Amino acid sequence: MTKKKSGKVDRQRSKKMSQLRHHKRSMIGIGFILLLLAGVLTVNSFMLQAKNKEYKSQEAELEAEIQKEKERSEEIEDYEEYVKSDEYIKETAEEKLGLVDPDEVIFKPAE
Question: Which stretches does the entry tag as region Disordered (predicted)?
Fold first, then answer.
């Protein structure tokens, strides 16, 4: 009877050892997967930081461009007001059409 019990004990022991090995393999597999995921997340994090840096520099460039365009818009508005003035009309008439005020005297150089 001792042989039967010792055989049973040996089988139980080998079954427990087999379960333990299987458990260890599972834990190693899970650990490897977690390590792989951590690596992927780290790489993606660095890539996102690089993109973020690029977007911030692009944003700064666009802000500068917006400021330039605002200044240009102000200049255009000022010019538009000037074009509507009598002074601009008078200057244009004198330059392009050769018109003068009735009181003005024109001196031409001798040829």
Answer: 1-22
- C-alpha 23/C-alpha 35 separation (Å) is 18
Asked whether 81 and 75 are in contact (CB, 8 A), the reply is no
* Structure letter (DSSP) for residue 85: S
Backbone Cα Rg of the chain: 45
Q: Are 110 and 104 in contact (CB under 8 A)?
A: no
Q: List the pLDDT tens digit at each of the 111 positions of the chain.
A: 445 566 666 777 777 778 878 888 999 999 999 999 999 999 999 999 999 999 999 999 999 999 999 999 999 999 999 999 988 988 888 888 877 777 877 777 886
Distance, in Å, from the CA atom of 93 to the CA atom of 109, rounded to the nearest integer, reads: 21
Q: CA 1, CA 14: separation in Å to the nearest integer?
A: 20
Asked if 82 contacts 88 with a C-beta cutoff of 8 angstroms, the reply is: yes
Find where tokens 């802000």 sit. Answer: 63
Q: Distance (Å, rounded) from C-alpha 33 to C-alpha 27?
A: 10
Looking at residue 74, its amino acid is E
